[in-house]
Amino acid sequence: MRKLLLPLSILPLLAAAPAAWAFDPDTPVGEKPEAFPVKLGDEENTTIGAAFRTAFGLEKGAAPEAVREIDERTYHFRPVAIHTMENNVAALLSVGSLEDAGHSEGGLNAIHYLKGSPTGWVKQGEWMDVGAVGTVGNGATSWAFTGLLAANPYLVTAGGGVWQGCLVSSAVVTELTPEGPVDRGGFTDAMSSGAGLGQTEQGYDGQIVAAVPGKSFTVGYTGTKAFKQQYVLKDGKYALVGPEKVPGC
After folding, report:
1. What total number of domains does the chain contain?
2. Alpha carbons 115 and 54: distance in angstroms, whole number
3. Which of 9, 36, 56, 118 has the lowest tally of Cβ within 10 angstroms?
4. Where is 158: in which H helix or E strand?
5. Closest Cα partner for 162 from 221, 103, 207?
6. Low-confidence residues of the chain: pLDDT under 50
7. Is residue 214 classed as helix, strand or coil in its secondary structure?
């Protein structure tokens, strides 16, 4: 049997090499592990047109736009984000803006489960009216997928509006179960006031900064005051522990 002999000059380098150099086929090279806080963003993914066309039954090559009539209201949908889950299934988030909406009327968010195949995406399920939406006919205005809250991935969406100079934005946490998305509760992710007559000038921004997976999560607030609030899962919903510290409008 032949033995592989390494040059003596390379042995010190191998001894000093970090364990991360070991080949891990399940971890893409250069991908950093997810960490708190859970940061929401509003950048729309422009490369997921094929998934959107499958989700909404559009022809190949059609523009990534779809119109749906729901409860006699017209919504215009566009894709914004996608997340790969287990068994080659992906969750596609699309936001729908409501046509001719009033200030207090929100849009809709749609979630589609799509399974990859040699011939392209195959639709597994469709769910409308998921997560948080904004005012004036807007769907979610920011979002993030995260694996930090439970064994199943979660989608966090946020949306809000301004009332007489006071802004409030609410976030909803949605569990992406194998059977479909389930809204599990929410929290205030932003509040600011002072632009209206007689209002106190103050502002707060909240992010999920910690979690006990499947049991609770903590939102940390910065701004006029810094504090944390904990939400505990009970009977399928996350509920705030103690009184609400974020002021309303």
Report:
1. 1
2. 10
3. 118
4. strand 154-163
5. 103
6. 1-28
7. coil
Establish if 102 belongs to a structural domain: yes
245 within domain boundaries: no
3-state helix, strand, coil in the chain (%, to 5): 10, 50, 45
Of 103, 174, 164, residue with least CA distance to 138: 103
- Residue 43, C-beta contacts closer than 8 angstroms, at least 6 positions apart: none
Q: What is the pTM of this model?
A: 0.87
Residue 100 domain-assigned (yes or no): yes
Cis? peptide before 247, omega within 30° of 0: no
- Report how far residue 2's alpha carbon sits from residue 230's, in angstroms, rounded to the nearest whole number: 62
pLDDT in tens, 189-231: 999 998 777 788 999 999 999 999 999 999 999 999 999 999 9
Tokens of 198: 């007689």
- Residue 9 falls inside a structural domain: no
Residue 115 in contact with residue 126, Cβ under 8 Å?
no
CB-based contacts of 138, cutoff 8 Å, min separation 6: 95, 97, 98, 106, 107, 159
Q: HSE-up of 127 (CA within 13 Å, CB side)?
A: 19
Where in the sequence is the domain holding 233, given as residue range(s)?
Answer: 39-240
Number of alpha carbons in the 13 Å side-chain half-sphere of residue 104: 1
Please answer whether residues 79 and 94 qualify as being in contact, where contact means their C-beta atoms are separated by less than 8 angstroms.
Answer: yes
- Residue 87 near residue 122, CB atoms below 8 Å: no
Q: Where are the beta strands (DSSP E) in 48-153?
A: 66-70, 73-84, 89-98, 108-117, 120-128, 142-146
**Count of residues for the chain?**
249
